[in-house]
Amino acid sequence: MAVSGFEGFEKRLELHFFGDDPVSIDNMGLRLLDFESLEQVLHAVQCTVVSAVGNHFFDAYVLSESSLFVYPTKIIIKTCGTTQLLKSIRPLIHFANKLGLTLCGCRYTRGSFIFPKSQPFPHTNFKEEVTYIEENLPINLCYRKASVMPSKLPSYSWHVFTASDQTQLPRFALKSPDDTFTVEVCMTELDRLLARKFFNKSGDSASKEMTELTGIDNINPGAIICDFAFDPCGYSMNGIDGDRYSTIHVTPEDGYSYASFECIGSIYDDQDDIVETLKKAVQVFKPATVSVSTTSNSHEVWTKVAHAMEPLGLKCRSCAMDEFPAAGTIIFQTFTAARRK
Ligand SMILES: C[S@+](CC[C@H](N)C(=O)[O-])C[C@H]1O[C@@H](n2cnc3c(N)ncnc32)[C@H](O)[C@@H]1O
Active site annotated at which positions (predicted)? Predict the structure, then answer.
């Protein structure tokens, strides 16, 4: 293991907003944030936009360190390396307020850093992160919970903080439950031959070549892919398919190789489809260790995950479950490759 290298494990922040003008929200909401404001937010985090794509439902940005998704009432921002993701909270709330939108929900998740000592404030440890989030959230988000979900693998745990608005909770309860689920996959010790394919070939078509050569384009053939190859190595992509996004980020360097896959779906989808998608994503990277975190109001999604990993030679090592107010149930499962352990 290298003494220090690029930190692949991402920090992920999801913020939900509401506003009094349903027409404006249905139309654009947060998508009306101008690019200068987004740049200001990203400057605080210390990353930049490298490419962007949008459709009728949302905008997807590939960042110098991972991805940003902007929906009318929801923002998802995911950054790796030594970025200071939580510094985006205050400016995002400020710019959303200017659009007449109020924060009603917040979810922060991350795995265990490979190089925790390289992380700057406020990411030096989870306690400090939670303190920082709490200090920057408005007091109306009073249903708060922080938890470190364990696994049996050393240095593989899942850090979760959620907060929601008190006035939103009864409304959520009366409404039909949120049908969206999120799957976050973290993979380490990638297959070495595969990892080599993410070292840059010169030219503008490098990212497209990587997408095709590795089979990433087959994970969801219906998605529009926005990909980016870093110099001398590294790869990021966002997939957009209707109102759904998927995203992949790869740190291919030997000694701390890492890839992540994330997607969203609906509990009303055919659950076998998501399982197939997951299988295809993991198969691309052939990792020695995998963690899968699902956030959902349904128990059906995660139960199939373990079965999906088995045929890939991945054995389930642990499964932890926890409930979070308004966010739902989070299941954190870890797997290791039988052949490589
Ligand atoms: C930004 S990408 C993908 C990020 C993703 N979260 C991950 O974990 O892999 C990271 C990879 O690109 C490489 N890289 C090259 N130039 C970079 C840059 N300007 N910013 C960030 N990463 C860069 C890093 O060494 C690393 O292998």
Answer: 66, 80, 236, 249
